[in-house]
Amino acid sequence: MSTHSPLLSRIQSRSARIGIIGLGYVGLPLAVEFAKAGFDVTGFDVDDAKNAEINAGRSYIPDVSSSDLAAAVRDGRLRATADMSCLGAMDIVDICVPTPLRKTKDPDLSYVVKAAEAVAATLRAGQLVILESTTYPGTTDEVVQPMLESKGLTADRDFFLAFSPERVDPGNTRYKTGDIPKVVGGVGPASTELASAVYAAVVTAVVPVSSTRVAEMVKLLENTFRAVNIGLVNEIALMCHKMDINVWEVIDAAKTKPFGFMPFYPGPGLGGHCIPIDPFYLSWKARQSGFECRFIELAGHVNGAMPEYVVSRIADALNSVGKPIKGSRIHIFGVAYKKDVGDLRESPALDIIELLNHRGARITFTDPYVACVTHAGRVLESVPFEQAVAQPFDCAVIATDHSVFDYARIAALPLVVDTRNALGQTGPGIFRL
Ligand SMILES: NC(=O)c1ccc[n+]([C@@H]2O[C@H](COP(=O)([O-])OP(=O)(O)OC[C@H]3O[C@@H](n4cnc5c(N)ncnc54)[C@H](O)[C@@H]3O)[C@@H](O)[C@H]2O)c1
Q1: What distance in Å separates the CA atoms of residue 350 and residue 352, rounded to the nearest whole number?
Q2: Which end of the chain is more exposed for a tag (fewer CB within 10 A), N or C?
Q3: Which residues contact 114 (CB under 8 A, 6 or more apart)?
Q4: Could you tell me if 394 and 328 are in contact, meaning their C-beta atoms sit under 8 angstroms apart?
Q5: Which ligand 1 atom minimizes the distance to the CA of 133?
């Protein structure tokens, strides 16, 4: 019997115990899916408040329903703890911790390293460890594997190690965790087979690849593809504005081509934990091999300049009614980084607020998913929509096109800058990106 057969049997019979490290946007939906599939799941998070919410059956992630979570907790299939010493009791450990950038735009692997240290401390023969955090090619075999092997066990023989990128799209009601195919690459064939078997229990399709590096690169290709195409369409939008062409009409007509074109839309800039960050993991790693990723740098430059461009359009709008930015009351509709979510991470709306604040504007905002924004030591609270459209301000800015906004009411305001084409029109008083 090969060394991985006992774990394979436990996965197939759903008797394997699964530990998920990091219970955020990625880890919590996954934990609930595994529990729903019949596995015994323990979540490990350093944030005690999150563990307490889970153990009380309350979800803090919009894509995870509290009723699903509560059912899993009630049935004894899901619990959360900060006690990492329990990791040794798990058959499978799935690492879903953050992978941010440092201020210098270099990868910050400190969360992955900390999680891997915790796994290494209790690692035993027969365990399967999977890294899901988005990271540069080589992280699993160059960073995590040596840490785990430092106790004398060998990967793909005594224990098993794989990388499987998370592709979840928060707020997407069409594709949830279980509907998105999972790419899996192990450090060897046994690791790939085991990790594939685990995911086959909860997702519609598993795509095994030949190595952890290929799996790591797949995720970075996907997100770089988005960053570069958004950069391209943002540049086309600036170009069209100069040439007095309606970019939105151009994209709508172009997307009627049934092959070879995929629509991307201009906007106020990139946001979220993935698209603005992940490509820089790739360019950093490529630079170590003496390769300069010009597309990534250029897209970063174009996308990073969009908040400044939005502010210039706000200045144009105010100028059209004889007002300066300084002292003007500017109301922002939507501050989350994308529609229908409450995630503020890297949101371009925060840059727009900062730039406007710097120029002396008086800023208010409405976002049904974000209660408050802290800026320059001040806390701005979200103004209810009805109150917002009734208040006298000099310019409204649609930064995020949440579905719940009543756009007819916004269109009726005297001066609007629409960065998302949410109103679908221009006209007197409406300035579209
Ligand atoms: N959010 C997304 O849409 C998305 C999509 C695909 C991939 N990813 C990737 O998945 C990873 C996780 O992202 P996320 O959005 O879930 O992050 P998150 O911030 O929502 O959640 C991470 C969780 O990890 C916990 N944590 C941090 N260090 C820990 C440690 N040492 N031990 C235990 N818990 C720890 C944090 O308290 C937090 O609850 C990142 O690499 C990200 O790039 C995210």
Answers
A1: 5
A2: N
A3: 97
A4: yes
A5: 41
Q: Of 96, 240, 274, 395, which is the active-site residue? A: 274
Judged by DSSP in three states, 168 sits in coil
Tokens 């509907």 belong to which residue? 179
The pLDDT of residue 1 is 56
CB-side exposure of 363: number of CA atoms within 13 Å? 31
User: Which residues are within 8 A (CB) of 220 and not within 5 positions of it... i.e. 6 or more apart?
Assistant: 134, 136, 137, 278, 279, 281, 282
Sign of CA dihedral 213, 214, 219, 222: positive
Residue 274: active-site member: yes
Measured CA to CA, the distance from residue 154 to residue 139 in angstroms comes to 17
Spatial CA neighbour of 198 closest among 3, 5, 18: 18
Residues of the chain with pLDDT below 50 are none
User: 247: helix, coil or strand?
Assistant: helix
pLDDT (0 to 100) of residue 411? 96
DSSP 383: P
SS3 (DSSP) at 173: coil
pLDDT in tens, 128-138: 999 999 999 99
Q: Is 108 touching ligand 1 by the criterion CB < 6 Å? A: no
Which of the listed residues 96, 223, 344, 345 should we mutate to test ligand 1's pocket, taking the one with most ligand atoms within 8 A of CB?
Answer: 96
CA-to-CA separations, 328 to 297, 314, 316, 359, 364, in angstroms, rounded:
35, 11, 13, 10, 11
> C-alpha 29: how far from its chain's center?
13
CA distance 323 to 308: 19
Q: Report pLDDT for 377.
A: 81
Q: How far is CA 190 from the centre of its chain?
A: 30
Does the model's pTM come out above 0.90? yes
What distances in angstroms separate CA 407 from CA 69, 173, 284, one per listed residue? 34, 22, 42
